[in-house]
C-alpha cells in the first residue's frame, strides 16, 4: 500500500482527522483483533459487571487496563500505526498512552454523543492521535463522524455521556464552555465521515469533535481505539490530573512540562529507549 504521507500530514494538521484505507494488512489486523479480544476476556474490575450478554442491547466499553501491555505490547510493537503517527506529526518519537474497546450489539443502542477526548486526557499539544479501528465494515452513515478543524478550538467541557443530556459537562469545576448541541444542529456544521473496512485506520486529534452512530437490530460493532503522543505534547491537567500509568504525574509535572515517563511505552523509533 502506498500512502501520500505529505498529503495526509497536511490534512491532519488542517482537519484534525484523516482516513487511511488498508493500513493494516490481514496479519496485522488479526493481531489487533486478538488484542481487542484480550480486553474482553480481561475486563477491568470497574467494568466486568457491564459485559453481560443477556439478550438486551449491549453498549460496552472499557479502557486503561493496568496490565494492558500483557495483551497489547506485541501487537503495538509490530503495528504500522506508531510509524503512521510519526508521519502525520512530522516527528519521530511516539509513545502509547492507553487502549479503549467498544462493543455494540443485540439491538438498538444510542449514538455516542459528540465530544472531545482532549477535555479529559491530562495532556495537550500538536503531537497526539487517536487511532480508531473497526473489525466490521461500516457504511458511511454507520461510521464515526467528525467536525474537521475543530481541533483548533475551542476546547469544550466535554460530554458526561448523560443519556438525558448529551451536552451535560463532564466536570462543572472546569472553566471550559459547554458543548454545543451538534446533533440538534447538524446542518450548521461541516460533518465528515467515511465508509470503512477492516484494515482501515482513522486518526484524529484529541481535540477533534467526534461522535458515533447508533446500532440497529442485527448489527454488531467491534471497535478499538489506541491513543498516542509525541515530542510536542505537554502536561495539561484539566479534569483528570493523572493517568493510571503515571499516577503521580500531578506532583511530578507542572502545566506545560513535556510528557515523559517510563509508564508510557515508546514505540517509535523502534531503537529508542522506552522512557
UniProtKB/TrEMBL annotation:
Region feature (Disordered): 155-174
Keyword rRNA processing recorded: no
Molecular functions per Gene Ontology: dioxygenase activity
Keyword GTP-binding part of the UniProt annotation: no
Compositional bias per record (Basic and acidic residues), positions renumbered to this chain: 165-174
Record keywords, A-Z: Dioxygenase, Oxidoreductase
Protein name per its UniProtKB record: Phytanoyl-CoA dioxygenase family protein
Organism (species): Sphingomonas olei
